[in-house]
Design a protein that fits this description.
Elements: H1 3-15, H2 18-25, H3 29-43, E1 48-51, E2 54-57, H4 59-82, E3 91-96, H5 100-112, E4 119-124, H6 127-135, E5 141-146, H7 151-160, E6 163-171, E7 174-178, E8 199-202, E9 225-228, H8 231-240, E10 245-247, H9 253-256, E11 260-264, E12 271-278, H10 285-301
Parallel strand pairs: 3-4, 3-5, 8-9
Antiparallel strand pairs: 1-2, 5-12, 6-12, 7-10, 7-11
Helix pairs in contact: 1-2, 1-4, 2-3, 5-10
Length: 302
């Protein structure tokens, strides 16, 4: 077993595809295939199950990858200590719903561990992909929310994927609106107040059921609905169309500017926002630092 083999299997697990892993690592596909086959033979396990769409990590492969990441992390520490920063190329990935504090915490991690080169990934993506990314080890940490409406279903999916949810904070529902919105001077708003304005939400692809919705109260019928893919588009529509989106109310003016404000929404609901990680898997130093940064930014932005 070599460090190179471990790097190969970890990269393949992150990308879910041997061809993509070969492109990232600048090696041939047969080299990775042969290295994985030799490693599986030596360890007497099956790390990946091959499919027409790529590879899937097996149950024993998930356990093996947890240890492999720890070995690579220790190797990185040794190289940093004795070979210098320019020899480093750390890897770290997070998948999350669209939260400004998650972005700010990610920035903090990069600043805390400056390197000559690195390969970090921040995916603001659909809810089911967040769970899938962490389950398949494409991301070390995921961030999403639970509410009274989705708690049972999402918790079952998290448990079925051998993941653990850890609450960061509980938020009461708010809406993001433009600072120039007709309702901007209200101390709080109701759903009736918002009736004539476009409701903006994040598209969830084929998983567009309310269980996976990033916005609570998604089952309510509204006359004007717009779904988007990214935060920039949503905020542009908030400003340009006097739209609104239901949210946690946690906002970073440093990141999102002063044109977007949060107003409490008068509804009987809650949002438990937290992280998901692989059960029993030790976080890398980047993962540990990210968790610390999350708590700092949550306390600052609430």
């Amino acid at each position: 077993m070599t460090l190179q083999q471990l790097k190969y299997v970890v990269t393949v697990a992150e990308l879910g595809n041997i061809t993509e892993a070969a492109h990232r690592l600048f090696v041939s596909q047969p080299s990775i295939t042969n290295a994985i086959r030799d490693l599986e033979k030596e360890m007497q396990i099956t790390i990946f199950t091959r499919t027409n769409k790529g590879v899937i990590v097996s149950t024993e492969g998930e356990i093996f990858l947890g240890y492999a990441r720890q070995v690579l992390e220790q190797a990185d520490l040794l190289e940093e200590k004795f070979k210098g920063a320019e020899e480093q190329s750390p890897h770290f990935a997070v998948s999350c719903q669209h939260y400004s504090f998650a972005v700010n915490a990610f920035v903090d991690v990069i600043r805390r561990f400056p390197a000559y080169q690195y390969d970090f990934t921040l995916r603001e993506t659909e809810t089911h992909e967040i769970i899938d990314d962490v389950a398949r080890l494409r991301s070390e940490i995921g961030i999403l929310y639970l509410s009274s409406r989705n708690h049972e279903v999402i918790s079952k999916i998290i448990k079925a994927n051998d993941l653990v949810f850890r609450e960061l904070f509980t938020a009461s529902p708010h809406v993001f609106i433009s600072a120039a919105h007709p309702l901007a001077d209200r101390t709080a708003v109701t759903l009736q107040d918002l009736e004539d304005y476009p409701n903006l939400s994040y598209e969830q692809g084929e998983y567009n059921s309310f269980y996976f919705s990033e916005e609570i109260l998604s089952t309510l019928d509204r006359r004007k609905n717009i779904r988007v893919r990214d935060r920039a588009t949503l905020f542009n529509l908030v400003i340009g169309l006097q739209g609104y989106t239901v949210c946690s109310g946690v906002i970073s003016h440093e990141l999102n500017g002063e044109q977007i404000i949060a107003k409490p929404l008068k509804v009987d609901e809650y949002m438990k926002i937290g992280t998901i990680t692989r059960r029993g898997m030790q976080l890398s130093r980047y993962g540990q630092a990210y968790m610390e940064a999350l708590k700092d930014h949550v306390s600052e932005e609430q």
